[in-house]
Design brief:
The chain is α/β, with parallel strands linked by helices. About 35% of the residues lie in helices and about 20% in strands. It is built from 12 helices and 12 strands. It has a 5-stranded mixed sheet with strand order 4-3-5-12-6, with helices on both faces. It has a 5-stranded mixed sheet with strand order 9-8-10-7-11. A two-stranded antiparallel sheet has the order 1-2. Helix 1 (about 10-20) crosses helix 3, helix 2 (about 30-40) packs across helix 3 and helix 5 packs across helix 12 (about 290-300).
């Protein structure tokens, strides 16, 4: 929603609708004073917004004097029309392996809990997903825990919705050399790196710190081709099953660095702080435990992934 196109009454109505989307029938609404402070508007503007949503049949309220105002009934589909949100859209990496496919299936299953239309799209590169989140193209993004913490530390407009400690994001990283005799990055090497992939980029920078190497920008998907073409000498890459079956390649463990390699295997969900009301709205139907259970189920029936 482009908030600049709304007048004060429209903005407050949208924010109020977003707030109520996270409530259940029987919940108490914030007081008028609490809402005037939250929305930085006058009492009359708040009362007009409440009256408008009532007149449109979005909510039925029970006013109980000193006990406050209780949400008696709510029509979420009608209410959603006034939030200014489009259908709820999240993004995660392209599901090209079992871990991503099972996570995609889990999100697809859990997002059915939303009272409105929702979908999950796929975009490679945490930097790209972060940019789409900041531009309001997305309501949430999925990254690794390591990338999520890196983003939050660097970007004050993005915050963690929750980590998913019992879920699986992807295989651990390893170092891949064309020369099977190599075990570590050395001076003079050409090291492939994808600037859009935060985990790979940060691990690579940590491994190359203090060494005289050339960082060669490349799409993450081109790693194997560039190694075989000898365009690069090595790269940081996920330890996928097919690497063990390709005898021409030499994957090596990642030595300890100041970037938490273990946290690159665990997913997390991020939201835009400036997207008012999205955090409580998403937290209502989604939970780490629910997503973990759905992913476990998806991994058990992997021949029938649905996403």
């Amino acid at each position: 929603m482009n908030r600049k196109l709304l007048n004060k009454h429209g903005t407050v109505t949208a924010d109020l609708a977003r707030s109520i989307m996270a409530l259940d029938a029987g919940d108490r609404l914030p007081t008028i004073i609490e809402m005037t402070e939250a929305f930085s508007v006058s009492r009359g503007v708040v009362q007009n917004a409440i009256g408008f949503l009532e007149e449109e049949g979005c909510i039925v309220l029970s006013r109980c004097g000193k006990l406050g105002t209780v949400l008696e009934k709510v029509d979420y589909k009608k209410l959603y029309d006034f939030t200014g949100w489009n259908p709820v859209v999240g993004a995660m990496p392209v599901p090209f392996n079992d871990s991503f496919r099972s996570l995609a299936a889990a999100l697809h299953t859990e997002c059915r809990r939303f009272p409105v239309e929702s979908s999950v799209i796929y975009a490679s590169g945490a930097v790209i997903r972060q940019s789409m989140l900041k531009k309001d193209f997305l309501d949430y993004i999925v990254t690794s825990v390591a990338a999520a913490r890196h983003i939050v530390n660097a970007d004050p407009d993005v915050e963690l919705l929750f980590e998913l400690p019992d879920c699986w994001y992807e295989e651990p990283y390893c170092l891949l050399f064309i020369d099977s005799a190599e075990t570590e990055i050395r001076d003079g090497m050409r090291v492939g790196v994808d600037p859009d992939t935060i985990d790979q980029m940060e691990l690579t920078k940590a491994l190359c710190r203090g060494k005289n190497v050339e960082l060669v920008p490349m799409p993450f998907e081109s790693t194997i081709e560039m190694i075989h073409d000898r365009s690069i000498d090595c790269s940081v890459i996920r330890r996928e099953k097919w690497l063990h079956e390709n005898l021409a390649l030499s994957p090596r463990p990642i030595p300890p660095t100041d970037y938490p390699a273990a946290d690159t295997t665990i997913p997390a969900i991020l939201v835009n702080k400036n997207n008012y009301g999205i955090r409580p709205f998403l937290q209502k139907p989604l939970s780490p435990a629910g997503i973990a259970e759905a992913q476990s189920h998806a991994r058990d029936i992997q021949s029938r992934y649905s996403f």
